[in-house]
Design brief:
There is one protein chain. The chain is built from 15 helices and 13 strands. The chain is an alpha/beta fold. It has three domains: 133 residues, 3-Layer(aba) Sandwich (Rossmann fold); 132 residues, Rossmann fold; 80 residues, Rossmann fold (3-Layer(aba) Sandwich). Strands 6-5-7-9-8 form a five-stranded parallel beta sheet, with helices on both faces. A four-stranded parallel beta sheet has the order 2-1-3-4, sandwiched between helices. It has a four-stranded parallel beta sheet with strand order 11-10-12-13, with helices on both faces. It is globular and about 65 Å long. Bound molecules: 1,3-dihydroxyacetonephosphate and iron/sulfur cluster. Iron/sulfur cluster binds next to loops. 1,3-dihydroxyacetonephosphate (13P) binds next to helix 3. Keywords: 4Fe-4S, Cytoplasm, Iron, Iron-sulfur, Metal-binding, Pyridine nucleotide biosynthesis, Transferase. One of its GO terms (molecular function) is 4 iron, 4 sulfur cluster binding. One of its GO terms (biological process) is 'de novo' NAD+ biosynthetic process from L-aspartate. Pathway: Cofactor biosynthesis; NAD(+) biosynthesis; quinolinate from iminoaspartate: step 1/1. InterPro entries: NadA, NadA_sf, Quinolinate_synth_A_type3.
């Protein structure tokens, strides 16, 4: 088996002290049982006043999201990160790749803080820059790199965004993937797209939104020579999909969709495009977290929904809309474990550290990576569509 420097260890195989790095917070991490955590968070946020700007992704816990100045999906948070250039500290309640993007999109004097450094993303970790560079070499050797445009999902490390910026590519999110693919196909005659790292978002967008035949979407396995593809498969492909997926959205299955349709009359299935193609094919509606929220807000009272996305968001929607029947599209509990790393003790610890004059867990991207990642992010922000306040 090929050895790669993947930061995540398969369960039960060895130990990885670095994977627990966020737990060992310098100073005092308050106990989760501390009854004063909410009051402490309020007091620290009030003491920091305009100096701090808190961003919260929709998958964050209720206990944390209540303190966000802005909530949103990945696109909205990337755009809003730059909304408060006067704020000295951006506390990012989300995951590492989002905080990196916020650092890239904010001013040089602004400091981006991730309350727990262990809040990574298993999907982002499925593509490492050295693997992507090796892939590019293989595409060059196959004589097709000149026609390939790299597109990376926001859920990727800054160095992969920079790779896309340097090689004429773009970043996309789940809310603008179709526009980004259209842009990418327009960049070169007979363009092919290397789509990183989520094969499902790439396939769902290409096939269902752009009408690209399924057999022109091939999966590049970075652990196999030449991605496990023949020269002919590569030549015929329009979409070269990186073999990555979201461990949360990958759980939803077409069988559960069938079961729910059989048991809940008139249920509408609403899913995120990170779900498997077979699930999205059976769904009524598909879209980003922001789209899911807007759809439920606009839905009539009494309507029934089964939602395939992270459980914190589904539970929050169910609580906020007691007049609608909202079900989770999985039989088991399915939180994003890394999003859940940001809990109230870490949030309080981060804010109180700032009040005390130390900057904890600052996320910084080196200038050369930042320059090219910004190119790819700015190309995304300039795409037509969701670029204004929405
Ligand atoms: P969006 O917020 O863009 O829908 O992405 C979902 C997600 O998985 C973020 O990690
Ligand atoms: Fe990553 Fe999936 Fe969690 Fe989003 S929900 S942070 S893609 S593991």
């Amino acid at each position: 088996m090929t050895t790669v420097d993947l930061p995540l260890l398969p369960l039960g195989r060895g130990t990885d002290i670095a994977s627990e790095r966020g737990v060992d917070c310098p100073g005092d991490l308050p106990a989760a049982s501390d009854p004063d955590l909410v009051a402490r968070a309020q007091a620290a946020k009030a003491a920091l006043g305009e100096r701090v700007f808190v961003l919260g992704h929709h998958y964050q816990r209720d206990e944390v999201i209540q303190f966000a100045d802005v909530t949103g999906d990945s696109f909205k948070l990337a755009r809003d990160a730059a909304a408060r250039p006067d704020a000295e500290f951006i506390v990012f309640c989300g995951v590492h790749f989002m905080a990196e993007s916020a650092d890239i999109l904010t001013g040089p004097d602004q400091k981006v803080i991730l309350p727990d450094l262990a809040a990574g993303c298993s999907m982002a970790d499925m593509a490492r820059i050295f693997q992507v560079e090796k892939t590019w070499d293989a595409l060059t050797a196959a004589g097709i790199a000149d026609s390939v445009v790299p597109v990376t999902y926001m859920n990727s490390s800054a160095d992969i965004k920079a790779f896309c910026g340097r090689n004429g590519g773009v970043v996309c999110t789940s809310s603008n993937a179709e526009t980004a693919l259209e842009w990418a196909f327009d960049q070169k005659p007979d363009a092919k797209i290397l789509f990183l790292p989520d094969q499902h978002l790439g396939r769902n967008t290409a096939v269902l939104k752009m009408g690209i035949p399924l057999d022109q979407c091939v999966v590049w396995n970075p652990l196999k020579p030449n991605g496990g593809l023949t020269a002919e498969e590569l030549q015929n492909a329009r979409m070269i999909l990186w073999k990555g997926h979201c461990s949360v959205h990958g759980r939803f299955s077409p069988e559960v969709v069938d079961e729910l349709r059989a048991t809940i009359p008139d249920v509408q299935i609403l899913v995120h495009p990170e779900c498997q193609h077979e699930v999205v094919l059976k769904a009524d509606l598909v879209g980003s977290t922001e789209f899911i929220i807007q759809t439920i807000e606009a839905a009539p009272a009494g309507s029934s929904w089964a939602i395939g996305t992270e459980l914190n968001l589904v539970q929050r929607l169910a609580k906020a809309h007691p007049d609608k029947h909202i079900t989770f599209l999985d039989k088991t509990v399915c939180y994003c474990s890394t999003m859940n790393r940001i809990d109230l003790p870490h949030f309080v610890w981060a804010l109180e550290s700032l009040v005390a004059g130390t900057v904890p867990n600052q996320i910084t991207v080196d200038p050369e990576t930042e320059r090219w990642a910004l190119t790819a992010l700015e190309r995304m922000l300039a795409l037509p569509g969701r670029t204004h306040k929405d």
